[in-house]
Structure formats: structure tokens, C-alpha cells
Amino acid sequence: MKITVVGAGNVGASAAQRIADKELANELILVDVIEGMPQGKGLDMYEATPVEGADTRVIGTNSYDPTANSDIVLITAGIARKPGMSRDDLQATNAGIVKAVTEQVAAKSRNAILIVVSNPLDVMTYVALKVSGFDRRRVIGMAGVLDSARFRTFISMELNVSVEDVSAFVLGGHGDSMVPLPRYSTVAGIPLPDLMDQATIDRLVKRTRDGGIEIVNFLKTGSAYYAPSSAAIQMIEAIVKDKKRILPCAVLLKGEYGIKDVVVGVPIKIGKKGVEEIIQIKLTPEEQAALQKSADGVKANMAKLSI
Question: C-alpha dihedral over 41, 274, 102, 233, to 10 degrees?
């Protein structure tokens, strides 16, 4: 298995280290435009493998040539949010970056599965899909896994229970219009509405929606990277090990949930082929309306693209 990580910043480097430590790849390529940075970080990671007992060959490079014939490409390149910025504020700059990256990786690895982390996530996934020309099953955005992890964390904190017993589902766009689903969220199989009142659920839902900016406001000069990289690795591991996980991810819909030609987060079965099935769960009219509103917001931003 050969995996490329594009972008050696905080998210990319954290993801690359986890790929190496978990031995998800025989060969790991770390690419960045900054001379010396991917080489230095890549060598540092490689030198950690004897200690970790992980036989992963790590190569840092500024060239896309070593990425040829990658099985999976994780795209993290782009500028990060700062306080006062929304994910949508990044769109124009990051669209150009993701377009250039996708052109390079698609030319070198025509059979790869692309996983996009760059923000605004749903729109950047569409950029990668359009520029690569790949089947929609091989271009997946990491959003719902991260948002669900945040929701799970806040539920665990509120109830003082293990995160292992908490399951949560967040659909829709990766932004203020995301759609956490308390009805499908459980603690040891117990539905969330049976464990806390609506006011508490609403507070946790709001904190989940604001999860990214809460961290941005703490850091001042950057955005989250430990949890986003972990979320991306969960997706990569499901592909590498063909685990058939059911995870909420951003994919292009073609009529599912009554939504067409928009990239939005929905539950999928993810395995060695990428998106192996889009799972259509039953939504209440209110949940469906919220998902449609979220999709409409993504579609409006997609319309602003000039690619």
C-alpha cells in the first residue's frame, strides 16, 4: 500500500505520523511546496519507526514524481482559519491550491482514492472531484467523522461516561449548517433524548457546530489538527483494511436524500473501493429540511467557483 499526504503542515504531518505508526502503508510520501519542510519532517518520522516497530518507509519531497501510483492520496493543503474567519472565507485561495494539487496527483495516480481535508471541506471535495475526473466513489471528504467525534466528546463530557460507549451522527455540510442527529446518537445503545433534556442537547449541538472555531479562538494563529487527522486516519484505515465501516463522509449525491449534484455529508459504507454504498436513513421532515438547507448552502458556494 502506497499513501501520499499532500501538505506537511499540522494536519498533514499529524496524519502522516499516524499512518506510519499504524503501518497503514509500506511507503508513505509527504509532499509540500516549502523546500526542506517535508524532507525534514519525513526523515524525522522515518527515524521514529525503529522505536515504534513500524516498517513504513517515509519520503518527504517537493516533487509529485515520488507519489506516482499511490493507492490513497490525502489532501490537506491550504491555508488555515484564523479568529473571525469562517470556513467559507478560505474558499477562493484554497480552491486554487486544491485544483493545482489534484491536477498533479491525478496525473500520477489515476487509480487512487482521494480523501480531502482542506476547507471549506464540501466545496474542496467537489473541486477535487471535478478536476480529477474520478468516479465519485473515489473522491471523499472528511467531515462527518470529525464532527461526530466532537459531538461524541461533548456528550461524554456532559454525562461523564466513556467516549467508547458514545455513538453520534452528524450529517450535512462541514460548517455552521451541519446537522447533528440526536435521535441517531446513543450511549451504550440508549438514545440521547432518553438521557438528557432538549435544552442540553441543543447546547451540545451548538458546541459541535462551533467546534472548529472554538479551537481557532484558543490557538489564535491556526486551527485544529489532532482530531481532523485522526478522523482522516479512520477513513484511510477502513480503506486499507477493507473494513466496510459505516461513517459519515462528504460525497457527491446524485438524488440520494432528494439532493442532486451537491457534495454533502451522509453515511457511507467505506472499504477498499472507497465509497461502496451510500446509506439512506429515514429522516424526520425537520431533519430532512435541515439537511436540504445545509446542501443549499454548499451549492451556493460551489456556484462561486471558477475552475
Answer: -20
pLDDT above 90 for 88: no
* CATH number of the domain located at residue range(s) 2-141 in this protein: 3.40.50.720
Strand order in the sheet with 166-167: 166-167, 186-187, 190-191
pLDDT of residue 254: 98
Q: Report pLDDT digits (tens) over 99-136.
A: 999 999 999 999 999 999 999 999 999 999 999 999 99
- Measuring CA to CA, how many Å separate 175 from each of 108, 127, 261, 275, 293? 32, 17, 19, 22, 12
157: annotated active-site residue? no
SS3 5: strand
Cell of 174: 462541514
What's the fold here for domain 144-302? L-2-Hydroxyisocaproate Dehydrogenase; Chain A, domain 2 (3.90.110)
Q: Cell numbers for 238, please give them.
A: 477502513
Q: Which member of 174, 209, 245, 299 is catalytic?
A: 174
Tell me what pLDDT residue 202 has: 95
Give per-residue pLDDT as tens, 240-263.
999 999 999 999 999 999 999 999
Q: Three-state SS for 30?
A: strand
Q: Provide Rg for the chain, Cα atoms.
A: 19
